[in-house]
Request: fold
Amino acid sequence: MATIEGSVMYRERMRLPPNAQVEVELQDISLADAPAQTLATVLLPGDAGPPYTFHIEYDQDRIDERHRYALRAEIHAGGKLLFTSTEHIDPFGEAPINILVSRVPEPVAAQTPNTPDAPHTPDALHTPDALHTPDTAAPATATLEGTRWRLQRLDGEAVAMAEGSKPLDLLLDAKAQKAGGFSGCNRFSGTYSREGSSEHGAALRFGPLAGTLMACAEDTGLERRYLDALGAVDNFRLTPDGHLELAAGPEVVAVFSAAP
Reply:
């Protein structure tokens, strides 16, 4: 057995409810088309206040050097998800490992593998949750990199695709730091970076995106709008219901769900 040590923090100046729990998981996230596999979990009482120091014991024989792994942290209270991590945390990176969790704008029912998704009622003030489409939501374990994301909404509007047409998508390759996908007529590729910071979410910026030069029978302008939106992105969020939101400052410009 081996041990991973670290701490969980949040920036908000607030005390958690007495029944709050901090959960940290070691996950195998190698398969983009399947939920992450949890290898080890630790639960901590949340009433003491941050930072929450954790120690996760795991079986070294279950670690495959060809796979990708991550630490995921969440804070729950009364069956509701209050905070969640949004960035990839390398469990075998340089110690100490510090995980920053972000507050969920509207606490939602915590999900378990054997229970259906809880219904979501967006706030009347059109928070980013109002852009979600729960019927196509991915598991909350989907990660930014290594997941093929399908475009659901662009500039606040649902993306309407003709029957039988290929959906617009996005895939980020963490090892090569390359982004690519299908933009409606052509395939595109380019670089991306998660360096820097943003007060609105985790930093993410795309470099110049180059595409193939196929001529489309019907040019609706969707492809150009999609690539322009990606070019404006400077931060992202992974929502509790498993969606990826790409934003330019505070404005969400594109919402994705993980491809089945």
Observations:
- Residues 9 and 50 are 6 Å apart (CA to CA).
- The longest strand covers residues 97-109.
- Confidence is low (pLDDT under 50) at residues 107-140.
